[in-house]
Amino acid sequence: MTTLLGYRSLVQEAAALRSGADDPLDAARRTCDRIDAVDPRIRAFVPEPGRRDRLSTAARELASAGPPGPAGRPALYGVPVGVKDIVHVDGLPTRAGSALPPEELTGPQAAVVDRLRVAGALIAGKTVTAEFAVTAPGPTRNPHNPAHTPGGSSSGSAAAVAAGMVPLAIGTQTVGSMIRPAAYCGVVGFKPTYGRIPLDGVIPNALSFDTLGCYATELAGIALAAPVLCDDWRTADAEAPDRRPVLGVPAGPYLERADTEALTAFAAQRELLTAAGYEVREVPVMADYAQVVAELFTMNRYEVARAHTERFARHADLYRQQTTAAIQEGRSIGDAAYRAAAERRTAFRERLAADGAAAGIDLWIAPAATGPAAADLTTTGSAIMCLPWSNAGLPSLSLPAGRAANGLPLGLQLVGRSGADESLLTWAVDVERVLNETFGEPAAGR
């Protein structure tokens, strides 16, 4: 199976640009060349006829306004970044994967884009999203095999990084829209704790769950970007002591939702980590998982419907079938049912945290998806392996962790405690090392 990985990692790109070994104009030119060469096949970016001129102008302005030498250049100086097309960017229209008139979707630039630009990043363009980040797929293909889905709804962002078009991309997750595409496309995906990155300037899916995150080809890139993107990042993390974390396996109905190939791969990943010296404990949790799933979608669909009340009233005929179905389902859910589901979610969060603490678990581990990406471009795949962690608002990562029998990537999901994003990234470094030593797939540029 041919992979398009092979370009510089985010850490390498940022170091070259900050040191002066490279310059933003060259980075902009390379990015446009790569998009022109690869994106007709992958379709990760929203088409933009004036991309090269816009990006070149931004690169010149950055170079002329910034420090003359390496000293003082910010963390992402000159780095091209893809931004999911539900996130407003000044100078670029927001279409949200929809056929609605662009004037229906205008808004001020997102806070996350402000942070990227303060850090010196260049916005390479908008990346494709499922319609309104729900379930109707965009045109993006999986870079490892274009006949297969890249996942959703952050499909374009994950595929753009996997195909070497940009070293960093922004996505969002409501249920599984960051972690699943990362697994399917063989990159690292990071979904922070709910609320850790402000959602100002982002078109909502379901505001009780929506969380901004990012993709890179390796964990070191995520560690470089996270302090730029997240509120109040602690660079010296006292919560991750100098020891290996205790890993928890969430035994029970949740884990049984993965397919046979994913469970077989997960067993092998567990054995690797145990052999490397990790303590891995099975913890029976979520015996009522079917109810947890139902309650999440009660809240999710209710909030989707309310987010689209005015637009849907004006343009119902322009919405795609999957999105319309979600909105119609949400409109049938009453306020009392929503409030009851929200109360039960609070109880679920408290129970999950208590179960983990009682078992002495530092990080949960699980398959990042039910299996490899399906050979079906009409679906974005199942979010069921991400659902409980999104429901609890917990920080999570997907690390590349081998390949399925058909050659497509698989991912291992790591989940931390609420607010302990720094610990998650710190502890994940050695987990990534163990996985890379065994599965032997170097990150881009190595």
Automatic annotation (TrEMBL):
The organism's place on the tree of life at top rank: Bacteria
Domain Amidase: 28-425
Region listing for Disordered, in residue ranges: 50-73, 136-156
Protein name per Swiss-Prot or TrEMBL: Amidase
Lineage: Bacteria, Bacillati, Actinomycetota, Actinomycetes, Kitasatosporales
